[in-house]
Each structure stands twice: as C-alpha cells, then as structure tokens.
Amino acid sequence: MTEPKIDAARLALPASVGELTDRLRGGGYIADRGLATALFVSMSLGRPILIEGEVGVGKTEVAKVLASVFGRRLIRLQCYEGIDTNQALYEWDYARQMLQIRALSERQLDDDDAVDKLFGPKFLLERPLLDAVRAGDQAVLLIDEIDRADDEFEAFLLELLSDFQITIPEIGTISASSPPLVVLTSNRTRELHDALKRRCLYHWVGYPSIEREVEIVLLRVPGVSETLTRQLVAAVNRLRQLDLAKPPGVAETLDWVATLDVLGETELNARTVDDTLGAVVKDRDDLELVRENLEEIVSGA
Ligand SMILES: Nc1ncnc2c1ncn2[C@@H]1O[C@H](COP(=O)(O)OP(=O)(O)OP(=O)(O)O)[C@@H](O)[C@H]1O
Ligand SMILES: [Mg+2]
Questions:
Q1: Rounded to the nearest whole angstrom, what is the distance from the C-alpha of residue 54 to the centroid of ligand 2?
Q2: How far is the CA of 265 from the centre of ligand 2 (A)?
Q3: Ligand nearest to the CA of 209
Q4: Cα gap 181→164, rounded to integer Å
Q5: Is the pLDDT of residue 2 over 60?
Q6: pLDDT digits over 248-273, tens only?
Q7: 24 alpha carbon to ligand 1 midpoint, in Å?
Q8: CA of 101 relative to ligand 1 center, distance in Å
Q9: What distance in angstroms lies between residue 184's CA and the mean position of ligand 2's atoms?
Q10: Given the CA of residue 35, which atom of ligand 1 is nearest to it?
Q11: Closest by alpha carbon to 70, among 43, 46, 42, 37?
Q12: Is residue 59 lining ligand 1, measured as CB closer than 6 Å?
C-alpha cells in the first residue's frame, strides 16, 4: 500500500530549491545555488533549460541525475554535425517494409488497406524526439551538445520545443499532454540563435570553487583520502590558471584522484604529478607547459 505513495513523492516536483539540491546530492550530484535555482524554475514553469559551460563540468551529468532522482526516463539526443530529423525524430523501417511487400501477394498489393499498413506504427522507428513527445512528463529529454548540430536542425528544434507536437503525414499528429523536462547542453563551440535561447532558461556552468570540487570528489570517489583530494584540487585549480589549450574539467580531477588512488599514492609531489599527468592534461603542448611549471603546480608557490 505504501509503495505508490513513495513513487508519487519521487515523481513530484521539488517544493524548493533546497529540496532539489538535496535530491541531486542524493543522486551523487553537487549543484551550486545558481544551477539548482535555474533547474528549479525550469521544472516548476515547464520551460526547457539551456546549460552552457566549460568542458567536463557536469552539464550532461545533471540531466542524468535529474532523471534518476525524479524517477523519470532519460531520453538522450546526442547532437553532431549533419544530424537530421531522420535520426532525431523517426524513420520508416525500409528493410521491414520491403520484406512485408514481398510477403504480400499481388492481390493484396491492390488492396489499399494492406499498403496503408506499411506506413503504420508497426514500421515506424521511433527516435529520441518522438519518444520524448510520447513519454511527456515521464521523461527528461537531454539534447546534448546542441552546438554541434547545424542551423537547420536548431530551427527545427525550436519549432518542436514551442509546441511539443510532431506530425507524421501517414499517421497524424502526436502531441505531449504535458511536455518532458528538457535539458539542452552546449560547449559553446558556436553561438546559438537568439530565438532558441529565448525559448529556454539559461545557466552558465563554470569550474566549481575549490570547496565544492573537493565535495564532488569525496562524493564520487568514496574512500579517497581528503588530504590527497585537497592537494589535487588545489593543483588542478593552478593548472586552470595556466594558459592551457584544454584546461582540465571536473571529469579530469576525478580521473586524477582515481589514478593516484589506484597507484596507492597518498600525497602529491613533483614525481607523482609527473608520473600521472596524462590523467589530467591531455594535449601535447599543454603537457610541456605544465612540466615547465611542475614545482609551482605542486607547491602552489
Ligand atoms: N557538480 C558535480 N557533481 C557531481 N559530479 C560531477 C559534477 N560536475 C562534474 N561531475 C562529474 O564530472 C564528470 C563529467 O561530467 P559531464 O560529462 O556531465 O561534463 P560535461 O559538462 O557534460 O562535459 P562535456 O562538455 O565534455 O560534455 C562526470 O563523471 C560527472 O559525474
Ligand atoms: Mg557533456
């Protein structure tokens, strides 16, 4: 008897920014006040949220954790150059349609009904956006790295986000009774259109503060030494101040901690940094620059 109640509470929208922050933390995600507030407003108003920010700072992860802590299905649309509506919306399953045509006799092929069925739900391949419209508020729709898609696709998305309905000529119009929670992310490799931004709430995610990053590591890498974590996070922050082509994100901090942990290292010194630098700096010129500044990075001088 009690189980449905628990589920209902899990699915319900958060009552406050604080509650949302706690639930995200329960799912392993540490959101600062700004991000939690933006997400809270987005959920409460049913507006999409566009999260832009540095590389590896938790933009994608927050959508995954949101879905998991609110008991919703995560539907992910990974954008890339050249993505089009076939991959994003739906496609007809040509191979199965062909097989079906072969299986039909000449006489059946004259029958309009049999031909119509070839363009029925049975032969429709649902892609993430159609899936999300059908799932409605049971889902979190993650449109990841929208900046990689091209202009036309962005314009098409804009239309979808405004009314959450999809028309399939052969089937009809499908609309979401209540829209899913939509999270868009971008690394800002190009500027997005104002029209898309206007449709969304916006939040920029920068690097976390030292305290918050320590907190993230301790939550994500259980059992790791706090002293080592503090040294590492401080070193990563110094790396971010160098003029690197690819400054390390939180993802790299986590990798670095896990690397030192697996090697059984308990403190940071010039040797341990040098040995394990590949976990955190992943560009040849950057590696050289860091090696020139090794002492400073370790000591913080
Ligand atoms: N605030 C946070 N709380 C918990 N984990 C975090 C946080 N920020 C980042 N992480 C962790 O850092 C890693 C990278 O996060 P994620 O992939 O979401 O970054 P991203 O911003 O989407 O990166 P990219 O720009 O490369 O797509 C994940 O393992 C995630 O768990
Ligand atoms: Mg990402």
A1: 10
A2: 29
A3: 1
A4: 11
A5: no
A6: 999 999 999 999 999 999 889 889 99
A7: 13
A8: 48
A9: 10
A10: 1
A11: 43
A12: yes
Instruction: Please write the tens of the pLDDT for every residue from 200-225.
Output: 999 999 999 999 999 999 999 999 99
User: Does residue 78 have its Cβ closer than 6 Å to ligand 1?
Assistant: no
Ligand nearest to the CA of 64: 1
Distance, CA of 56 to CA of 76 (rounded, Å)? 17
Which residue lies with its CA nearest to atom 15 of ligand 1? Answer: 58
Ligand at shortest distance from the CA of 56: 1
Band (pLDDT 50/70/90 cuts) for residue 1 is very low
Work out the pLDDT band at 117, boundaries 50, 70, 90. Answer: confident
Q: For residue range 16-31, what is the model confidence (pLDDT) as tens digits?
A: 999 999 999 999 999 9
Q: Which amino acid, 200?
A: C
State residue 7's pLDDT score. Answer: 65
Distance CA 301, CA 295 (A): 8
- Please report the atom of ligand 1 found closest to the CA of residue 212: 1
> Cβ distance 273 to 294 under 8 Å?
yes
* Mean pLDDT, range 162-175, rounded to an integer: 88
What amino acid occupies position 90?
Y
Question: Is residue 70 a contact partner of residue 8, using CB atoms and an 8 Å limit?
Answer: no
Measuring from atom 8 of ligand 1, which residue has the nearest CA? 58
The neighbour count for residue 38, using CB atoms within 10 Å, is: 20
CA of 56 to the centre of ligand 1 (A): 5
Confidence (pLDDT) at 249: 96
14 lines ligand 1 (CB under 6 A): no
